[in-house]
Amino acid sequence: MHLINADLHCHSNVSDGTLAPEALAERAKRNGVELWALTDHDEVGGQDRARFAAATVGLSYLTGAEISVSFADKTVHIVGLGFDADNVALQQGLIDTRGGRERRARDMADGLALAGIPDAFAGALRYVGNPDLISRTHFARYLVEIGVCGSAHEVFRHYLTDGKPGFVEHRWAKLSDAVSWVTQAGGIAVIAHPGRYGFTPNEEYALFSEFKAHGGLGVEVVTGSHTVAEYGKYADMAQEFDLLASRGSDFHDPIESRTDLGALPDLPGPLNPVWQALEHRILHP
Ligand code: AMP
Ligand code: MN
Ligand code: MN
Ligand code: MN
Q1: What is the mean pLDDT of residues 117-126?
Q2: 41 Cβ inside 6 Å of ligand 1
Q3: What is the C-alpha to C-alpha distance for residues 251 and 131, in angstroms, rounded to an integer?
């Protein structure tokens, strides 16, 4: 197996990252990435810029997006890779998925106000690069700015997760829809960072089984969100479920993110890399 430095998961300021697509392309190239995908949340608005920037710096490129899905009362993320970003059904699906974000953000701000933190909607908005895509990350940055917490991670723990004052239940896309939008647009759907969801073994088995039944083909094994032990666990699950393996940093910001673009171990040996199945979709510079 020829292993290349593929980084197929990161975010620009078109969603909740802090760098522009062009700056990400330059950083990826500088860090030795050979194949890159920008995977903004629920949004393909940065794809043209990313593709062009990749070509400019001499980087091979796959289109990407990370779709928010509700499954078993939790939020699960599905990464789509190598799709046609102009596909109308995919674009409409993403519009619908992100459509409730402003309402949700206003409700989050109401919850934070009750907890003694006023004006968080306006505060978070100052960090938003794309008004369609206000996320919890933008609230976290604002709460760090005003000194409520010392780090974004701490804000999530105390304010933005289930049961905390700024958390609002939200209905995202259906798993079957997310997988089919990606697949019918010519791409491959991948379960993002499965180690992050806190599922029981039964729930996790259900996620993998249903994902496969809907036509999903891949799973992230090596990601900035996994521990070394989880690399092994999800390598085994990739084999058990006969899924292609993906690799991505989930980079958002030079200071916030613990894994930089391209700075990941290789996929474990026996796995089939998702990018080999997407060879025909790779845009070479
Ligand atoms: P949202 O789509 O608005 O629910 O925001 C989800 C985003 O929040 C994720 O994509 C991460 O970027 C970020 N996030 C989630 N949990 C944490 C955490 N514990 N620490 C820092 N960022 C987090
Ligand atoms: Mn994010
Ligand atoms: Mn994610
Ligand atoms: Mn991500």
Answers
A1: 98
A2: yes
A3: 21
